[in-house]
């Protein structure tokens, strides 16, 4: 056997953590669909409209810390002509909220104690 018990337990814990992350994103995808959003940009703008100003400042602070490079790019870019109106690039598959229903959820394999 090439893996010890502790390593196997660590892997199982990571699999559970990964499953929780995947499930949380699935929830976001269904929120976008239920709100009839065309893409992630529309969903983000709608969520900012719902929140109070204090929460938006907090979110922006986190975004700036997490995505410093993109934040700098955004600051260096000219503001949009119509703030709050996003354009959709139909050729960009990353912006889609579609979920492949045929994609299986990760499964946990039992580890034998032998």
Write the layout of secondary structure elements.
Blueprint: H1 5-34, H2 40-50, H3 53-66, H4 68-76
Strand count: 0
CA-based shape: elongated
Helical/strand content category: mainly alpha
Work out the helicity level: 55-70%
Uncertain residue segments: 95-114
Largest sheet: none
The span between the termini is 9 Å
- Assembly state of the chains shown: single chain
Beta-strand residue percentage: under 5%
Number of helices: 4
Q: Nearest-angstrom radius of gyration?
A: 20 Å
**Helix/strand order, N-terminal first:** HHHH
**Mean pLDDT, all residues:** 75
Features:
114 residues; 4 helices
What does this structure look like?
The chain is an all-alpha fold and 114 residues long. It has a domain at 5-78. It has four helices and no strands. It is elongated, with a radius of gyration of 20 Å.
